[in-house]
Write a structure and sequence with these properties.
Blueprint: H1 2-23, H2 26-41, H3 50-101, E1 105-106, H4 109-121, E2 129-132, E3 141-145, E4 148-153, H5 162-177, H6 180-208, E5 212-213, E6 216-217, H7 222-235, H8 237-272, H9 279-286, H10 306-314, H11 317-320, H12 324-344, H13 358-387, H14 395-411, H15 430-454, H16 463-496, H17 503-515, H18 520-541, H19 566-583, H20 596-620, H21 623-646, H22 654-681, H23 692-716, H24 718-729
Parallel strand pairs: 2-4
Antiparallel strand pairs: 1-2, 3-4, 5-6
């Protein structure tokens, strides 16, 4: 589905190019006039009037609405034409294949009986029609004709033993039951359709430069001048870039579609032998000739080699695991999908989400795509690897996802002509911030999956488990996209300010992206839900009774079954941060004005959560990241409550102050977790549980010292503490 969306959005971009070619420079002139009006009406200065800024922005959106609406029509039309052609080719391509495999004749009645039995056992209401192909056919295949599935067998199938005949029919019927026929042929149809649609803007430009006769292009001169026109067209930087990106897109689509079909072959094998002895299918695969292709053709092969299929039947856990190439392909497609969808979505007053622009809106389906295509298979693979006693290797999976995402951001079709100047999304820094945040989300997903698997019996995910895995990964990856985009935007804003430059640009952008975007409430709420789930899973992971389970529990009366280091780490971090905040005087700010104490309080509160994270990672390795998701937010909330009570008499709006002290540090903590998620998840986990005596002594001491040290650094470093406020004062 993700591949289909990427291809449809590519068709939408072709529609956008056609709009520019048909309208010429008129839309650009209209946008320039609107920008000039906005620059005149927008207030200037370090602290502009928000009402005038909002009015100027509304005026700009109203001015550009007509051009944007017309462009959106062409984008939607391009995607719609691509889909329509794809649906048409979905019907025509299997008919052409059936014609090449013909002449088709009905198979003997025994085959129909086998198909009826297989359909009944696999849950189909209507049995497929079984046909026999011509002598040129070597592989059986299935397609739909007038609403009914058809299975076409090669002539050599007649010589198979009865049990292998049943295995062959069950395999093809499993494809029908899984919906593979529609998926495979629709993907092929859309791939060919997008090739035709992407060529339309090129053809328009070629026709527009032909000599005219009587007001219409003269086609008689086309053969003589066509080579020169094509050379001139593709020698231009824009169309050369467009051609390279189109070739990369189509090549990626071919490789990903082939990989998907190969995986479907594995799944059809497993579905066909579910609840039955696999001996017949194994014998069928064993006696088939190995059709392994040369190395450069393997990525495009539609069927895996029989030896690989045989190995998958013998070891089903191999199919359930995520692969490095699959993770990279998912990242590549999402990297192409996110900016394309953001460019195609409505802007301004017609945006779909109230707390962000079209980029943040597009991040939600992009996060869902990563959750379904990467997160759920990872969680399933961890359970399958645990069941087989071989946990799957995941470090390469964690690196492959952001690597593919980075390549997708660079190669996406909608950045044609822009990548050399402004980068993806108009900001080069997104090539750093977005992959880092997504990699951190992948690391957090990994450790949470291991935590979830620790309290379960080994086996496949249930429907409820899949829902939980999807929701957790959706929250992680959507938050990662938001964090990466917001950080890049605010780094750009502070870099353009008079006080920008050096490390303060990234520091200021980091803090602004975490705590002052208007989305911190949503991010803090998501972190609180993840903390609750991690807390529950931590409790479930501890087996047996608290008094007998080593390394678990603080005693029968106080939070039994909780990992022993969590509560001491929370308490120590809270005490250390509060004590250092009140005992050490804060550095005075040189010049300027602003809520310095309030900003210091936010950082001090966050330092308690960071101290919890560092302590648990030092004690337990990568496992500490999962327990830190449960422990760090409570530590922050304890310090928030203490700071709020300490200044209770000074608050003019006490409940608003409590809200800000609770939400903003959690949002900053979430961004920190996304930043360090990949390296922490890549650490080795501690072997065996932490000893109770060691944890009770070390956890509170470590967290107290770390929290106090972080607080002292923040309070006694003027450059660190007030860089953000000084940048605001300088505009």
């Amino acid at each position: 589905m993700l591949l289909l969306l990427v291809l449809l959005l590519a068709g939408g971009y072709a529609g956008r190019l056609l709009f520019v070619g048909l309208r010429g420079s008129a839309p650009a002139r209209a946008l320039e006039r609107c920008s000039a009006v906005y620059e005149r009406e927008a207030p200037a200065g370090p602290q502009p009037d928000p009402r005038r800024s909002a009015a100027a922005l509304a005026r700009l959106q109203e001015c550009t609405a007509d051009v944007q609406r017309e462009m959106d029509i062409f984008v939607v039309a391009g995607a719609a034409v691509t889909l329509a052609l794809g649906l048409l080719l979905m019907r025509l391509l299997p008919l052409l294949l059936a014609r090449r495999a013909g002449p088709l004749v009905p198979a003997p009645p025994g085959w129909s009986d086998l198909a009826a039995e297989a359909a009944r056992e696999l849950g189909l209401r209507r049995a497929p029609e079984v046909l026999r192909g011509g002598l040129r056919l070597r592989e059986a295949f299935a397609y739909a004709h007038h609403g009914r599935a058809r299975i076409v067998l090669p002539p050599g199938a007649a010589g198979l033993p009865p049990e292998q005949r049943m295995a062959l029919i069950r395999h093809e019927t499993a494809h029908v039951a899984a919906g593979d026929i529609t998926l495979a042929w629709l993907t092929r149809g859309v791939r060919w359709a997008v090739l035709a649609v992407l060529a339309v803007p090129l053809l328009h430009d070629l026709v527009s430069v032909l000599p005219s006769a009587g007001g219409a292009p003269s086609l008689s001169s086309l053969p003589g001048i066509l080579p020169g026109l094509v050379w001139e067209l593709f020698s231009s930087p824009f169309y050369f870039d467009y051609g390279l990106r189109a070739v990369l897109l189509l090549g990626t689509a071919a490789v990903v579609a082939a990989a998907l079909l190969r995986r479907r072959e594995y799944e059809a094998d497993l579905r066909s032998v579910h609840g039955r002895p696999p001996g017949a299918l194994q014998a069928l695969l064993t006696h088939r000739a190995d059709s392994s292709a040369r190395w450069w053709r393997r990525p495009f092969a539609l069927h895996p080699a029989p030896a690989r299929r045989l190995a998958a039947v013998r070891r089903p856990d191999l199919v359930l695991r995520s692969s490095v190439t699959g993770a990279a392909a998912v990242g590549l497609l999402v990297g192409m999908f996110l900016p394309a969808l953001a460019a195609a979505l409505p802007q301004g007053p017609h945006r779909l989400l109230p707390w962000g622009d079209q980029l943040h809106t597009a991040a939600v389906p992009a996060g869902l795509a990563l959750a379904v295509a990467w997160g759920v298979p990872l969680w399933t693979g961890i359970l399958a690897g645990r069941a087989a006693g071989r946990p799957p290797g995941t470090r390469r999976l964690l690196l492959a996802l952001p690597a593919g995402l980075l390549l997708g951001l660079l190669a996406q079709l909608w950045a044609t002509g822009l990548i050399r100047t402004t980068g993806p999304f108009g900001l080069w820094s997104t090539l750093v911030t977005v992959p880092v945040a997504v990699a951190g989300a992948a690391g957090c997903s990994l450790v949470l999956a291991r935590l979830r698997a620790g309290g379960r019996t080994a086996g496949r995910l249930t429907r409820r488990d899949r829902l939980v895995a999807t929701a957790v990964n959706l929250a992680l990856f959507t938050g990662a996209f938001w964090a990466g985009l917001d950080t890049a935007l605010h780094v750009h804003i502070f870099g353009d300010s008079p006080a920008g430059g050096g490390w303060t640009t990234w520091w200021n952008g980091y803090n602004a992206a975490a705590m002052f975007t208007g989305r911190e409430t949503v991010i803090a709420a998501a972190l609180a839900v993840l903390a609750f789930l991690a807390w529950r899973w931590s409790v479930r992971t501890a087996p047996g009774d608290a008094s007998t389970a080593p390394g678990c529990g603080l005693g029968g009366a106080f939070l039994p079954f909780l990992p022993v280091a969590v509560v001491p780490a929370v308490c120590g971090a809270a005490i250390g941060a509060i004590a250092a905040r009140w005992a050490l005087p804060a550095a005075e700010r040189a010049g300027g004005s602003g809520p310095a104490d309030g900003l210091l309080d936010l950082w001090v509160i966050t330092s308690a959560g960071v101290a919890c994270l560092v302590t648990l990672v030092l004690l337990t390795g990568s496992t500490g990241l999962a327990t830190a998701v449960a422990a760090a937010p409570p530590a922050c909330l304890l310090v928030s409550l203490a700071v709020w009570v300490g200044h209770l008499a000074a608050w003019s709006q006490p409940w608003g102050a409590l809200y800000a002290l609770s939400v903003r540090p959690l949002s900053l903590l979430a961004l920190i977790l996304l930043t360090v998620g990949l390296p922490l998840a890549s650490l080795s986990a501690r072997r065996g549980p932490v000893r109770r005596a060691v944890a009770l002594r070390m956890a509170p001491a470590l967290s107290l010292v770390i929290a106090a040290s972080l607080t002292a650094v923040v309070q006694r470093s003027p450059e660190l503490a007030f860089a953000y406020l000084n940048a605001l004062d300088d505009g």
